[in-house]
Amino acid sequence: MAPLIVFAFIAFVVVFFLYKSVKIIPQARAGIVERLGRYSSTLDPGLSIIVPVVDKVRYTIDLREQVVSFPPQPVITEDNLVVSIDTVIYFQVTDAVRATYEIANYIQAIEQLTMTTLRNIVGGMDLERTLTSREQINTELRGVLDEATGKWGVRVNRVELKGIDPPPSIQDSMEKQMRADRDKRAAVLTAEGTRQSAILTAEGAKQSAILTAEGEKQSQILRAQAQREAQILRAQGEAQAIETVFNAIHDGEPDQSLLSYQYLQMLPKIAQGDANKLWIVPSEIGKALEGIGSMVGQFAEEGESTPRAADRPRRRTPKPHAAVAAEAEEATVSALQDAESEVQAAIAAAEDAAKGGLGGGRNQQETGTNGDSAGPAQPAAQEPRPE
């Protein structure tokens, strides 16, 4: 029985020593082995054998990058305003031995170092610069922490300011200032838009006025050209008409008797009108009456012996105006044939118009007293005409 108990005890001791001698270190960790209270070795991840009772794994250090968020801390700025700043630190243990034996608690040390360094940096800035210089604060803080934690076997990879909270009164003032600044920018933008709108409106009105003026100019030019063309055509037509009449008259060769008869026909038209208060008989009326009288007397003496106008030899009419000359000659012959029957009526109308226009005796012309017109009426003695 005794040997069995001894064997069981020995087996237990062996199993115990084997269990204590085998250590398994997880990945991304390092085991610090102490032998009889002193540092002996560092165990890498995996299976390791140590001496039981003599060696002991004192610490297991995490070698991964770690994130630590520190609570908000009050910090005084250069303009004596208290702001609360909370930070986030990203660090990694690079040397497990130094992180174990150089400092007791490297996380607490990093926190305190972060707070003191942050107060030192922010204390040299005013509030506005503090709120707008996060990147600068992060860079300076990371530089200080990396230099201080290097001897602890810790590397600070990144430092971030999670929040910067000024006092409520300062926040209210900042909001008012921000609101006023936004209102100012809105007013400036509105004024700029109004100005641009006015400029564009003026440009549009200018272009419209220019186009309207150009259109009116073109319209006036075209209207003036049309009027000029019309006047030219009208003048050419009048010139052709005058030339045609002139050629017809000269081709017809009218004599003094016909001209005198036409002159007497115009006298009643001259005397017509209610506005005529004074009518002056021209001196040429005597010659006209004399010509008419001579022609009538000649007709009375000669009678049928006077050759008819139809028997007279036709005048040679130029070829370009043959039709017009024939019409003028026919009109002249017809007028001479009717002259004998109408000359007395024309003389009487001329005398009545002359008497009425002279106001009953002024510049009256002497006429024959007998009913038969033996000769042409003689003009009255010439007296100075009233001016």
Compact overview of the structure:
Belongs to the band 7/mec-2 family. With 387 residues, the chain is of the alpha+beta class.
Mean pLDDT: 75
Radius of gyration: 70 Å
CATH topology of the domain at 64-166: Tetrahydropterin Synthase, Chain A
Helix content: 55-70%
Q: Kindly provide the name of the CATH class of the domain at 64-166.
A: Alpha Beta
Instruction: Give the helix tally.
Output: 9
Shape: rod-shaped
H/E topology pattern: HEEEEEEEEHHHHEHHHH
CATH superfamily of the domain at 64-166: Band 7 domain
What is the rounded distance between the termini? 190 Å
Structural class, from secondary structure content? Answer: alpha+beta
Instruction: Please name the CATH architecture of the domain at 64-166.
Output: 2-Layer Sandwich
Membrane topology: Single-pass membrane protein
Region (Disordered): 301-337, 354-387
GO biological process, one term: proteolysis
Keywords: Hydrolase, Membrane, Protease, Transmembrane, Transmembrane helix
Structural write-up:
With 387 residues, this protein is α+β, with helices and mostly antiparallel strands. Among the domains are: 18-61, no CATH class; 64-166, Tetrahydropterin Synthase, Chain A (2-Layer Sandwich), CATH 3.30.479; 182-250. The protein is built from nine helices and nine strands. The strands form three sheets. Strands 6, 7, 8 and 9 form a four-stranded antiparallel beta sheet that branches. Strand 7 and strand 8 (82-93) form a beta hairpin. It comes from Actinopolymorpha cephalotaxi. Residues 301-337, 354-387 are annotated as: Disordered. This is Regulator of protease activity HflC (Stomatin/prohibitin superfamily).
